[in-house]
Amino acid sequence: MRVLSGMRPTGKLHVGHLVGALDNWVRIQNEGNECYYFIADWHALTTNYDDISGIYEYTMDIIRTFIACGLDPDKSVIFVQSAIKEHAELQLLFSMITPIGWLERVPTYKELKQQLVNKDLSNLGFLGYPVLQAADILMYKPDGVPVGEDQVYHVELTREIARRFNYLYGEVFPEPKELLSHLPKLPGTDGRKMSKSYGNVIQIDITEKELQEKVLRMMTDPARKRRSDPGDPAKCPVWDYHKAFGTTSSEKEYIINGCKTASIGCVDCKKILLNHMIERLRPIWQRLNELKKDKDYVQQVIKDGNEKARTFAVETMKEVRKVMNLRF
Question: How far is it, in rounded angstroms, from Cα 204 to Cα 184?
Fold first, then answer.
């Protein structure tokens, strides 16, 4: 199976990215599939066009984090979107056949316009970003696209564009399926959606001391206002982290019983979580430190990945131009 997915370089990656996406990507890679994972730097411009200061550094940081979390450049193609100019050409051609109504009904398009009220998003790039996303995906003719639930509609739209292209010009593109992670999204430390704009994220490259501070301050079940109040783990954001970071069955049983009977406090519960998070993140921290020192290696990974992706993209565009009668 060939798969493709990517991330925007709009900030450092957090533990939600780790358990919601990267762990899934690594699993798919290690099952022997043909994997393409990229940094969607053009997509960062759709909403952050007025602040480009961090794009390069965030791109480098994310690639280091990809590798530190287990993506292997010998098994997966890791590349940067803007280095493969064929993506822009395919987006242009797809834009000729994509009705505006398809774009205006995209749920995330509506949501972002409502959320980012202080930003002018009346630009063509923002409206058309799902077309670029379709070009990113279909360029590599994947069978599946690892995504979160909020991105399922984009994969559906990609299939619609592929179907319309194939109907008009001939069979070139497959219709990829979404590959959902089995883990739910992690909430932020305050119980809301994890977002850097809320200041409630736990970054992957956090220090052990900072991690301890954030975990011990995490919001818990609102019913436990006092140590003696019983609670319900199912209503506590910390419980989602226990499910994601390898808390054992016996520990979970201890936490459930202790929380419901108030025989343990929230700090006791969080200390168990903290031990598992440190155990999971410490090897990543060590690998990140090594990669920060070995800049040549990271640059070579990018160069090699870009070349492999470009080779595939060039062949796809030869097919596209041929069926569209673009002979020059």
Answer: 18
Phi, psi angle pair for 183, to nearest 5°: -90, 140
pLDDT band at 194 (very low <50, low <70, confident <90, very high): confident
> What CATH architecture applies to the domain 207-288?
Orthogonal Bundle (1.10)
pTM recorded for the entire structure: 0.93
Nearest to 37 by CA among 1, 85, 88, 2: 2
CA 189 to chain centre: 19
| Helix or strand holding residue 301 (H, E) | helix 295-323
Dihedral in degrees, nearest 10, Cα atoms 9, 12, 15, 21: 10
Q: Read off the pLDDT of residues 243-259 as tens digits, 9 standing for 90 and up.
A: 999 889 999 999 999 99
Interior/surface letters 48-68, b for 16+ CB within 10 angstroms, e for the rest: beeeeeebeebbbbbbbbbbb
Task: Give the pLDDT confidence score for residue 150 in this predicted structure.
Answer: 80
Q: Please state the domain extents for the chain.
A: 2-186+295-323, 207-288
Coil vs helix vs strand at 119: coil
Q: Class for domain 2-186+295-323, per CATH?
A: alpha beta
Weakest mean pLDDT among 50-54, 83-87, 161-165, 308-312: 50-54
Residues in CB range of 3: below 8 A, 6 or more apart: 28, 33, 34, 35, 36, 142, 143, 144, 145, 146, 179
